[in-house]
Recover the amino acids of this structure.
């Protein structure tokens, strides 16, 4: 069943009933300040870093679902209700939530009072704006009260959740007119605070949670709102909050609008604010004044919409399939931008406390957004590379605020170095900017160690060359892309007990998947070496790639599919010889797209085996058969119940690899079938089964061996977004950036029809029309560029043009 619909013209998903199967959320913010908001106004906000500068609290694993949030309460005599339905859950006469590009709109009514709430984060300012309009639709004068509510986090979200013996004595607030200031820990930091203000006089306020909710009360029925009057409390320790009360009288047909601003502020760098525990309110007052009128808010909202219009115009497609159009036009690119901002740090499944920015994650995410914001992609590459070690390995994660590696997670994931090559190669193919390769970049953020970025790529490449096992395949280290495949955790020799090894220690477990990566990104490294005039290194890289390629053919093929790995004892993983986990998706998907096994016919067979063994109606599972008991030699992968996560779940992230490989082999029907099965727009009609948002990709879907087959988890922050956009834009639609120019090489279903693409590439707008009169799946018969026939399918880049018109005929 559906819970809403796509409004493609407005670029919104419209939710028509609040009790969706799971909270369906949106992200607000595009620079430093971010908010997560659900369809019932749950969520939280932070500045730059969801762990270190968390502004408002959210409770994970909560009952009831999805608390806390940034709430408004409306008290109308004895009736208390919320524009977003939660947390009071009073039945509404009407409800609508519109999640758009960086904003959400809630429109609800109860007893002939309508509330219209717009919430967004403006460009360049560190605040969340909430514009709420109340309208009296009755024929009688109505006296009602409006209450805001937000619960402050004591900044460090990790410490806030556990260090109660200290934190419950630190809360401090300040009140000035209609602004409530959260200055907890200001004594020791003296440079930042939070504030929540409204552009109207308030009748009362509350800054103590106990006073607002009642000591044993709840957000569903706060004591102060039931009483109809806030108590003007000043929090001292315990749980500081911010709540305003505005009493208003509405005549028949009258509307009144209020602007609330929830923000973060810092003292200017040059200003020393030495007064004991008195905050410098000027930065906050500047923001509050800027957004004190409806007109200024409307102007900021219009600027936000223009920003997204411009951004999304850089890749637009028109096909005969509206679901493809809306995903490529809008939601897939929007999700790629969210993963750029968040990596895997903050969602409704990632608490924002543990992971920070992932090295591998952020490199892969870049593949999906580099065409949108190449200048920021360049900065992100430098940030990522700066966490690398001198030997080519890297911290697996780093904190976005400090840019320092996460020592809790550490290093030892041996695929990480190659993802840096992937990101830099994608950036240069998109932009042509080779100057980035000369950019000085430190190791482990120690500035005195800085070397050109090209040297970082060499260290990445050489790390794999120098870390191979007895079969000539790359050592897996702690894990490769699959963090749960821990083949070096335990090892034994005959007669010996199992031994535990550290993250990068241990014996000889090897990864066929990393071998495939090395073939693809080793060749791309060689291309970059050739591009910058280093033919000797390019030739060296090709020779090393050839060695690994031969090792794959000799030791990585199992007869009908590619092996997954060799464990620490040299035993095969992902082989027909195994009782469980006979075949894995990763090598079957990634090796053919890397060019492995195509001329030998192995890639074709591997993809047939993938379809036979792993395919389901909801997508391709990560392995089969599932593990039914724990395997010490495999680690965490076998700790999940069958059908979930890495143990035979449908891990959406690597489904695009299979689709790309099918496209590489010219199988347009199959490539699109794989794309369609996990695409959220195609799953909207089964939202009661799928459960997560029908407008963004999820990390995983429960596999056929799970009790809840088809149920998704971990939406939004997943590499699925970037890889799917690469798949649909570069391989199915076939518009590929190369070092020489755009390549036109679509691979589509026979009945896909003609299509057009508008794409910005290196500052030039390409207007591409693709006809398929003979209903073929792949192949370009003619290519006209500005009316002139071009040999082959690569359009040489011409910086002297502003617009290029391309006509391609398949055949």
């Amino acid at each position: 069943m559906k819970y809403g619909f796509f409004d493609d013209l407005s670029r919104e998903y419209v939710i028509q009933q609040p009790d969706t199967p799971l909270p369906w959320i949106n992200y607000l913010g595009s620079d430093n300040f971010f908010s997560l908001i659900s369809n019932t106004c749950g969520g939280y906000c932070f500045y730059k870093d969801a762990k270190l500068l968390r502004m408002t609290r959210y409770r994970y694993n909560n009952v009831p679902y999805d608390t806390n949030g940034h709430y408004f309460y409306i008290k109308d005599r004895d009736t208390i209700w919320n524009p977003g339905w939660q947390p009071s859950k009073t039945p509404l006469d009407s409800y609508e939530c519109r999640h758009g590009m960086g904003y959400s709109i809630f429109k609800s009514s109860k007893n002939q009072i309508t509330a219209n709430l717009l919430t967004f984060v403006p460009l360049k300012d560190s605040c969340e704006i909430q514009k709420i309009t109340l309208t009296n639709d009755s024929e009688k004068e109505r006296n009602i009260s409006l209450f805001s509510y937000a619960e402050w986090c004591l900044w460090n979200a990790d410490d806030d959740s556990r260090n109660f013996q200290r934190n419950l004595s630190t809360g401090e607030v300040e009140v000035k007119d209609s602004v409530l200031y959260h200055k907890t820990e200001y004594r020791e930091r003296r440079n930042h605070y939070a504030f929540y203000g409204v552009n109207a006089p308030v009748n009362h306020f509350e800054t103590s949670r106990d006073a607002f909710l009642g000591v044993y009360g709840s957000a569903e029925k706060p004591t102060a709102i039931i009483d109809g009057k806030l108590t003007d409390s000043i929090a001292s320790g315990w749980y500081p909050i911010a709540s305003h009360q505005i009493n208003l009288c509405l005549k028949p047909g009258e509307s009144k609008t209020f602007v609330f601003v929830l923000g973060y502020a810092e003292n200017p760098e040059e200003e020393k604010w030495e007064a004991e525990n008195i905050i410098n309110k000027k930065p906050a007052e500047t923001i509050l004044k800027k957004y004190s009128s409806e007109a200024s808010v409307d102007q900021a909202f219009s600027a936000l919409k223009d920003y997204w219009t411009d951004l999304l115009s850089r890749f637009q497609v028109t096909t005969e399939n509206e679901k493809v159009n809306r995903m490529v036009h809008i939601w897939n690119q929007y999700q790629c931008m969210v993963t750029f901002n968040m990596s895997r740090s903050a969602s409704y499944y990632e608490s924002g406390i543990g992971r920070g920015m992932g090295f591998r994650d952020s490199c892969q995410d870049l593949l999906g957004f580099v065409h949108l914001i190449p200048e920021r992609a360049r900065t992100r590459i430098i940030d990522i590379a700066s966490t690398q070690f001198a030997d080519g390995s890297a911290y697996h994660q780093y904190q976005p605020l400090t840019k320092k590696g996460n020592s809790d997670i550490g290093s030892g994931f041996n695929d990480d170095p190659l993802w840096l090559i992937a990101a830099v190669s994608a950036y240069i193919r998109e932009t042509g900017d080779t100057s980035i390769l000369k950019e000085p970049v430190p190791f482990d953020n120690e500035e005195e160690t800085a070397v050109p970025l090209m040297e970082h790529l060499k260290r990445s490449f050489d790390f794999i060359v120098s870390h191979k096992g007895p079969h000539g395949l790359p050592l897996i280290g702690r894990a490769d892309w699959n963090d749960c495949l821990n083949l070096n955790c335990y090892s034994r020799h005959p007669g010996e007990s199992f031994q535990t090894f550290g993250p990068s220690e241990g014996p000889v477990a090897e990864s066929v998947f990393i071998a495939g990566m090395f073939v693809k990104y080793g060749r791309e490294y060689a291309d970059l070496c050739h591009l910058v005039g280093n033919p000797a290194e390019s030739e060296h890289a090709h020779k090393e790639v050839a060695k690994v390629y031969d090792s794959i053919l000799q030791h990585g093929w199992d007869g009908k599919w590619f092996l997954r790995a060799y464990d620490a004892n040299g035993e095969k993983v992902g082989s027909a010889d195994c009782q469980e986990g006979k075949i894995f998706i990763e090598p079957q998907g990634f090796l053919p797209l890397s060019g492995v096994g195509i001329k030998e016919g192995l890639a074709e067979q591997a993809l047939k085996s993938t379809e036979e063994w792993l395919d389901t109606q909801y997508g391709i599972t990560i392995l089969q058969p599932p593990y039914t008991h724990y395997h010490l030699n495999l680690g965490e992968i076998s700790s999940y119940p069958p059908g979930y996560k890495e143990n035979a779940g449908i891990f959406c992230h690597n489904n695009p690899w299979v689709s790309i490989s099918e496209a590489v082999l010219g199988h347009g029907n199959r490539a699109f079938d794989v794309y369609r099965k996990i695409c959220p727009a195609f799953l909207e009609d089964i939202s009661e089964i799928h459960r997560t948002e029908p407008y963004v990709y999820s990390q995983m879907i429960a596999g056929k061996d799970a009790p809840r087959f088809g149920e998704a988890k971990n939406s939004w922050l997943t590499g699925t977004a970037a890889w799917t956009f690469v798949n649909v834009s570069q391989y199915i639609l076939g518009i590929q950036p190369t070092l020489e120019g755009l390549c036109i090489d679509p691979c589509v279903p026979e009945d896909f029809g003609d299509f057009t693409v508008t794409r910005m590439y290196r500052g030039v707008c390409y207007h591409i029309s693709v006809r398929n009169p003979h209903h073929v799946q792949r192949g370009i018969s003619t290519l006209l560029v500005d009316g002139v026939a071009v040999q082959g399918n690569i359009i040489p880049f011409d910086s002297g043009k502003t617009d290029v018109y391309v006509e391609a005929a398949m055949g």
